[in-house]
Design a protein that fits this description.
CATH topology of one domain in chain A: Beta Polymerase, domain 2
Oligomer: heterotetramer
CATH architecture of one domain in chain A: 2-Layer Sandwich
Shape of chain B: globular
CATH superfamily of one domain in chain A: NADH:ubiquinone oxidoreductase Nqo5 subunit
Distance between the termini of chain A: 50 Å
Shape of chain A: globular
Strand content of chain B: 5-15%
Number of helices of chain A: 3
CATH class of one domain in chain A: Alpha Beta
Structural class of chain B: alpha/beta
Largest sheet of chain A: 5 strands, mixed
Number of helices of chain B: 7
Distance between the termini of chain B: 48 Å
Strand content of chain A: 25-35%
Helix content of chain A: 10-25%
CATH topology of one domain in chain B: Rossmann fold
Structural class of chain A: alpha/beta
Largest interface: A-D, 43 and 47 residues
Radius of gyration of chain A: 17 Å
Order of helices and strands of chain B: EEHEHEHEHEHHH
Strand order of the largest sheet of chain B: 3-4-5-6
Order of helices and strands of chain A: HEEHEEEEHE
Helix content of chain B: 25-40%
Chains: A alpha/beta, B alpha/beta, C mainly alpha, D mainly alpha
CATH architecture of one domain in chain B: 3-Layer(aba) Sandwich
Number of strands of chain A: 7
Strand order of the largest sheet of chain A: 1-2-5-4-3
CATH class of one domain in chain B: Alpha Beta
Chain lengths: 154, 219, 116, 386
């Protein structure tokens, strides 16, 4: 499947899907509410067959008050790659978990919760992955302050 | 490989059936401790490969110094080699392991992560900056990772440290042989004086003046 | 038959064993601590208690091993004096081994050796 | 909407410890951070019934240094040296991945010499990494000799690499825009000497471990990871290929000079520890073949096509590129905002996904088999925690 009709097929799935610009690979933006259904289609559709989730991470934009969630998908059968991005608000970061589709999502999502504070609905075992359970704050947020961390003297 | 010749403080007593070696108990115990340090397998990151495994393997043989028996439990180990970064979550575990080791226990902090936090000093919310905040450290081996030979030099320094100072009545009190590493005739005062002189003389680099001093013609 | 040598032998072994223990008790430093005495579990605080019901197979295996270890211990002195006791001694040892072999077959049939 | 945040202790109490058929109680035990066979500080909370593992709960974070947070405060060239400390057994491949992201973002054209040297170095490091894995794998299964054999041959490659790169472990050699140094004049001769030395030694590895019936029985049908689960868990590298999925970036997305080189992708069938073992041994042979094809005709040219400016500024945008390391796909995802420091840098590390294959394959096996499975997955823990 050539890239542009892959994007066309992907955009045709859901209403709020749009091509994401400024990316060196194929990427689409999705509305947070329709994410789970959209991902389920991507996984089940034999034409797309995105059966591997390379990685799931997040990017914090405090200025625009949103946390962007990045899903990087790959299809081992069709050998094509797609990046799906969606955004949640910073103060109420909740989104549905895709761990029912790909098992590895369960642990990537735990890492994103641990470092960004994004809550996943329907996640079987949501808890901190790297830090202690009683750790205050989410370190990878841009406004994370910590008296233990040394800033480099400029 | 040159045999390590040390002045052995022993006195040979000729006896009818042969001769008997008399020596002080401290020396015998320290000699036994020093030449059979059993390290605990405790490698957290990159230094573990270089300092624990490569040094213990066939090419740089740790067995030459009697320390190749790497024990897994702290009960049977008397040398804790901290090889790698210690983060906040690992700190209580390192303290528990150190506490659970038998009494004549020694610690070598290898790698700049164990000495001062290494490349993760700035902007890291978990890295402990230096293991000596957690446990008493005997020998520091700098490097990132230090070469196996550097680790051997640290081990030999620890062995000299054990043989020189420790006595059975006051376990755990050892003299650091840093002074012993100075060549004869050089004292700390000389070094400080030289450093002070160096600092103000070389505050600026004046190439033309140094070329004239060494009467090199101008480039 | 003077038994002095046997007494000397017992004395030497006793001295050797208890000498080592006493010397280490006198010389080695003793600093028991709360953390040092807690069971070692890879550095973590120990979880749960060790007093737990576990498989009965371990106990039976240990018993079988004990039986055959003792059997080997008995065969050593027999092997030393084999020449003097001649064929009669051989027959007795054969019966001794046969009895223990039947014990093994019985245990095998009962399924002790099957590991769950 | 059921969002419930739990803690580790709650999770442990939730797992039911039921009576097992032999009326023996199940109990929890720590295969904790300091353990000879976890290759680093990985803690596994095991629910055991006698000797059989019923459930595994990996606990991470014992070497989490926050490299991604640090990445937001240093430049791209400085970030290259941090990737050595992640998977320190394929440091060159990690450096290559970061350099590739920067080069693609600034679309820098590299000449053939740089690409060839990078490919040779990456393949030498793959052999070196598999040698260490083979040695430690033997030691985990109880045989100390493979450890000594593996390291004896590994030191030979370390010396060759050290002559050119100057470092034994943390290479920091492949930088954005080319290489730090040019290769030594007798580099090709030394590599050829090593290859002729190592080929019979590889046969020696086979006779020592592969044809040894004890090892075979300890590995055959132990920890089977079928293809569907392997893909769903996102495992990559030898672990995925052993399950029968031939996904190798060197063939699917050729980079460097992999397009111009003939080599086969080693693929297993069942996906047990034996297949993972065979795939890695076969990969060593393929890597030797690749190096042989490249070592004789390294093209001439400069080894640095970009002025080594400290300030590399990437145009704003999201960039992602990945590379096939000895353990799987190492991906670097950069969100750049035009300054000389990345706005956000995320590392897709192979060991993170390969580790979770243990939670799927090991329950039901005995503790000794768990060690075999864990060692056959070839985990490097700082790569997981970052």
């Amino acid at each position: 499947m050539s890239p542009d009709d892959l994007v066309a097929a992907v955009i045709a799935i859901e209403s709020g899907v749009a091509k994401k610009d400024l990316c060196d690979r194929l990427a689409v933006n999705v509305l947070p509410e329709t994410l789970l259904k959209f991902m389920q289609r991507l996984h089940d559709d034999p034409q797309l067959a995105f059966d591997m989730l390379y990685t799931h991470t997040a990017v914090d934009y405090p200025v625009e008050n949103r946390i962007e969630l990045i899903y990087q998908l790959y299809s081992v059968k069709q050998r094509h790659y797609l990046m799906v991005a969606t955004s949640v608000k910073r103060d109420k970061p909740e989104i549905s978990s895709v761990s029912s589709i790909w098992r590895i999502a369960e642990w990537h999502e735990r890492e994103v919760y641990d470092l960004f504070g994004v809550l996943y609905d329907g996640h079987p075992d949501l808890r901190r992955l790297f830090l202690d359970d009683d750790w205050k704050g989410f370190p990878l947020r841009k406004d994370y302050k910590d008296d233990f961390m040394l800033e480099r003297p400029e | 490989m040159g045999v390590i010749t040390e002045k052995l403080p022993i006195y040979i007593e000729p006896m009818p059936g042969g001769s008997m070696v008399l020596t002080s108990m401290d020396f015998m115990i320290n000699w036994a401790h020093a030449n059979s340090l059993w390290p605990l397998t405790f490698g957290t990151s990159c230094c573990a490969i270089e300092v624990m495994m490569a040094a213990g393997a066939s090419n740089h043989d740790l067995a030459r110094f009697g320390a190749e028996v790497a024990r897994a439990t702290p009960r049977q180990a008397d040398l804790l080699v901290v090889a790698g970064t210690i983060v906040k979550r690992m700190a209580p575990i390192l303290k528990t392991l150190y506490a659970q080791m038998g009494e004549p226990r020694y610690v070598i902090a290898t790698g700049s992560c164990a000495i001062s936090g290494g490349p993760f000093v700035f902007n890291s919310y978990t890295t402990i900056r230096g293991v000596d905040q957690l446990i008493p450290v005997d020998v520091y081996v700098p490097g990132c990772p230090p070469r196996p030979e550097a680790f051997f030099y640290g081990l030999l320094t620890l062995q000299r440290m054990i043989k020189e100072g420790e006595t059975v009545r006051k376990p755990g009190i050892r003299r650091k042989p840093v002074m012993a590493a100075l060549p004869e005739g050089i004292t700390i005062a000389d070094i400080q004086a030289e450093l002070a002189a160096l600092l103000d003389r070389n505050a600026t680099v004046n190439v033309p003046q140094q070329c004239k001093e060494r009467d090199l013609d101008e480039p | 038959m003077n038994y002095f040598l046997v007494l000397l032998f017992i004395g030497l072994t006793g001295a050797f064993v208890f000498g080592g223990l006493i010397a280490s008790f006198l010389i080695a430093p003793h600093k028991p601590g709360k953390v040092k005495n807690s069971p070692y579990e890879c550095g973590e605080k120990p979880m749960g208690s060790a007093w737990v019901q576990f498989n009965v197979g371990y106990y039976l295996f240990a018993l079988l091993f004990l039986v055959f270890d003792v059997e080997a211990a008995f065969l050593y002195p027999w092997a030393v004096v084999l020449r003097e006791v001649g064929v009669a001694g051989l027959m007795e040892a054969g019966v001794f081994i046969l009895i223990l072999l039947s014990a093994l077959v019985y245990a095998w049939r009962k399924g002790v050796l099957e590991w769950v | 909407m059921s969002i419930r945040v739990t803690t580790l202790d709650e999770k442990i109490h939730e797992i039911p410890t039921n009576e097992s058929p032999m009326a023996s109680q199940e109990y929890f035990v720590n295969m904790g951070p300091q353990h000879p066979s976890t290759h680093g500080v990985l803690r596994l909370v095991l629910k055991m019934d006698g000797e059989t593992v019923r459930e595994i709960l990996p606990v991470l974070g014992y070497i989490h240094r926050g490299i991604e947070k640090k990445g937001e405060h240093i430049g791209y060239r400085q970030f290259v040296h941090l990737t050595d400390r992640l998977d320190y057994l394929s440091a060159l491949a990690n450096n290559w991945a970061v350099s590739m992201v920067v080069e693609k973002a600034m679309n820098i054209e590299l000449n053939d010499r740089i690409q060839t040297i990078r490919t040779i170095m990456a393949e030498l490091q793959r052999i070196q990494s598999h040698q260490l894995w083979w040695g430690v794998f033997g030691m985990d299964l109880g045989a100390f000799t493979p450890f000594l054999y593996g390291f004896r041959d590994r030191e030979k490659i370390t010396t060759i690499l050290e002559e050119t790169i100057g470092a034994r472990l943390t290479m920091n050699y492949i930088q954005p825009g080319g290489l730090m140094f040019d290769i030594q004049p007798d580099f090709a001769k030394k590599v050829k000497e090593f290859i002729s030395y190592f080929k019979p030694k590889l046969e020696e590895y086979e006779t020592l471990v592969s044809n040894n019936v004890i090892f075979e029985q300890r590995m055959k049908n132990v920890g089977i990871l079928d293809a569907a689960t392997a893909v769903s868990i996102g495992t990559t590298g030898p672990v995925l290929r052993a399950s029968g999925v031939a996904h190798d970036l060197r063939k699917d997305e050729p980079y460097g000079v992999y397009g111009k080189v003939q080599f086969k992708v080693a693929v297993g069938s069942v996906g047990d520890s034996w297949d993972r073992y065979r795939v890695r041994i076969e990969e060593m042979r393929q890597s030797i073949q690749i190096v042989e094809q490249l070592i004789d005709n390294i093209p001439e040219g400069k080894t640095l096509v970009m002025k080594p400016a400290i300030k590399i500024k990437l145009p704003a945008g999201n960039y992602y590129s990945h590379i096939e390391t000895a353990r799987g796909i190492f991906g670097v995802f950069v969100v750049a905002d035009g300054t000389d420091r990345p706005y956000r840098i995320h590392l897709r590390t192979p060991n993170f996904n390969n580790l979770w294959a243990v939670t799927v394959t090991a329950p039901g096996w005995r503790l000794a088999d768990l060690v075999t499975i864990l060692s056959s997955l070839d985990i490097v823990v700082p790569d997981i925690d970052r």
